Amino acid sequence: MKFFKFFLFVISALLAACSSKPVLEPQTSAPIEVVEPSLEGQRESNKNKLEPKEPPPVVDKAVAAPAAVIALLKRADKQLMAGELAATEATIQRAIRIAPRFPESYYRLALLRYQQKKYKQARALSEKCLSLGAQGELYKQANELIERIAG
Hints:
Layout: H1 2-18, H2 42-45, H3 67-81, H4 85-98, H5 103-115, H6 119-131, H7 136-150
């Protein structure tokens, strides 16, 4: 029996030694490109879909983020439209853990907190978004949210 355990240990060690590590490509700082699809084919398919209360903000082209974060934010949009608030919150927090310097994730969480009527948290998250260097449309939307909370 000892021989069999020793044999399994040697085989597993050999296999582990022979495996190769995945090669990670470096992150580029290229801006995110947003492609607008044509509206002709979508008009008929959108008739049966529910419209969200507030459209999700546009990903700011000036700030680069990992593709995983963009995918998580898109998933959060779908979860929010489906009314899955807990899942939406978990997805956005995961995006923040992956890229804690990406301001849009904080803005999305601020919107969620605003919808939950947690105004202090929504304001703090909007201010965090601004402090991380939000630009363009994202800057404008974060300021508007702060003004809605204050007014």
